[in-house]
Amino acid sequence: MKQTVVIVAGGIGARMGGELPKQFLLLNDYPLIFHTIRSFYRFNDQFNFIVVLPESQFDYWKDLCKKYAFAIPCQIIAGGETRFHSVKNGLSIVADGALVAIHDAVRPFVAHATIQRCFEMAKEKKSAIPVVPVVNSVRQGTFLQNKSISRADLHIVQTPQVFDATLLKKAYTIPYNVLFTDDAAVFEAAGHQIFLTEGNIENIKITLPIDILLAEQLIKTGFLTN
Amino acid sequence: MKQTVVIVAGGIGARMGGELPKQFLLLNDYPLIFHTIRSFYRFNDQFNFIVVLPESQFDYWKDLCKKYAFAIPCQIIAGGETRFHSVKNGLSIVADGALVAIHDAVRPFVAHATIQRCFEMAKEKKSAIPVVPVVNSVRQGTFLQNKSISRADLHIVQTPQVFDATLLKKAYTIPYNVLFTDDAAVFEAAGHQIFLTEGNIENIKITLPIDILLAEQLIKTGFLTN
User: Fold this and answer.
1) For B46-80, how does the pLDDT look when each residue is reduced to its tens digit (9 = 90+)?
2) What's the alpha-carbon Rg for chain A, to the nearest Å?
3) How many CB pairs below 8 Å do chains A and B form together?
4) Is the pLDDT of residue B45 over 80?
5) d(C-alpha B51, C-alpha B46), whole Å
6) Do residues B82 and B176 lie in contact, with contact meaning Cβ atoms separated by under 8 Å?
7) Whether B154 and A146 lie within 8 Å, measured CB to CB
8) Residue B188 and residue B192: Cα distance in Å, rounded?
């Protein structure tokens, strides 16, 4: 049975300060989301790709595919109000029984080694979340009341988050909670154990203008591993 | 009374994978640590600068100052085994009664607005720590046993961390603890309240090779505010 990769592109571009949703920003003259899908396709051209997009962007997606001759087969499905609802929509067309990876459209630089670690661990453990260490000090609380927290115990979560599809789909039937900022939180809330594995430091999420600068530099300097 | 800025450059370069300690790496053909000191000097040329360096790097520092015609007056003092011990050494030559800022030598892009916010808040509250929000999901624990943690309650800590010098020097008389990854943790352990203020997103810590790439791009693209 084919493994599925759900590419979640809910962004409407507000945080980047521009008109263009961030998943469509050009990196090295090529749309960000195509870089992302291509990373997975190069790892395994038999993945089943589902792209979750705001419905208002469907036409733009088609135009882009044509313009950039992007021909990797993808099923497109409409996103929802939050990331939770978008992923839930994407999962609605995922078959039971195989593994499913949920990946942010705006993380173009996932390493093949990370993809491999996640699928291998999820095959054995039912969940696999790639993480990187925290290099800065961290405080918890408000600006006025806060405390130091050990950074050695903290892990910055990346994607792809890979799960047993049957269990993840069932987990996504629980009611939405504002704390569900990723799939691991949903899977955990459904009572399952979360297993972490090593991500890759350049697997950054393009969220702020500063991230685009870094992304362009990463491409130009040959820093990337795949 | 003059306010003091302690620039902490304990690094021996291990994490960058090169021979050159990271504080001496060239950014735009100019040593990183000089960029950092210059940011403060341009904000206020009356700051009293103390630079904490491994003793083995004193000669290299002198050579660099000459080579790059770096003439901002700095007192140089030897670092210690950890960041805690280095800061403690630096504080040993800070006068009581004024404000003191502790700043990482490898954070060249501190904004003047951040410096101003920190000094203003510390003047009123005795402590001021610049922070930026966490944009990724975070998990707490080990790779096998961990839990989701609300990122809205977490703050990534930057420097300059500004304090009442008398109180900080006293705080640094408590015994070393491995959890003291910054000055706020020490000041807090001595029983004082920590006040947070807004940092600036480009005030990155140059720790990994990927950070140097971003730093170079920030300089080239005119992203910086000062």
Assistant:
1) 999 999 999 999 999 999 999 999 999 999 999 99
2) 17
3) 136
4) yes
5) 15
6) yes
7) no
8) 5
Please identify which residue in the block is written with the tokens 């870089």: A35
What is the amino acid identity at position A159?
T
pLDDT band at B18 (very low <50, low <70, confident <90, very high): low
Per DSSP, the three-state class of A103 is: strand
> d(Cα A171, Cα A75) in Å, to the nearest integer?
22
DSSP string, B122-190: HHHHSEEEEEEE--S-EEEE-SSSEEEE-GGGEEEE-S-EEEEHHHHHHHTTSPP-TT--SHHHHHHHT
Can you tell me the distance from the alpha carbon of B134 to that of A154, in angstroms, rounded to the nearest whole number? 12
Structure tokens, A154: 């903290």
**Is B15 a residue whose pLDDT tops 60?**
no
Coil vs helix vs strand at A8: strand
Are A202 and B210 in contact (CB < 8 Å)? yes
**In this complex, do B143 and A185 lie within 8 Å of one another by their Cβ atoms?**
no
ipTM score for this prediction? 0.92
* CA–CA dist A169, A91 (Å, integer): 6
* DSSP code per residue over B185-212: HHHHHTT----EEE--TT-----SHHHH
Which of A27, A134, A205, A217 should one mutate to test binding to chain B, selecting the residue with the greatest count of B CBs within 10 A?
A217
Question: Hey, what amino acid is at B65?
Answer: C
Is the pLDDT assigned to residue B17 strictly greater than 60?
no
Q: How far is it, in rounded angstroms, from Cα B76 to Cα B67?
A: 18
The per-residue pLDDT for range B84-141, each reduced to its tens digit, is 999 999 999 999 999 999 999 999 999 999 999 999 999 999 999 999 999 899 999 9
> What values do phi and psi take at A206, rounded to 5?
-85, 100
Distance (Å) from the alpha carbon of A151 to chain B's nearest alpha carbon: 9
The reported pLDDT for the residue numbered A199 is 98
Mean pLDDT of B143-153: 95
Condensed to tens digits (0 to 9), the pLDDT of residues A62-88 reads: 999 999 999 999 999 999 999 999 999
- A219 sits in which H/E element: helix A209-220
Whether A150 shows a pLDDT value over 50: the answer reads yes
Residue of A nearest to B203 (CA): A210
Residue B105 CA to residue B38 CA, distance in Å, equals 11
Tokens of A162: 């890979």
What whole-number percentage of chain B has pLDDT above 70? 96
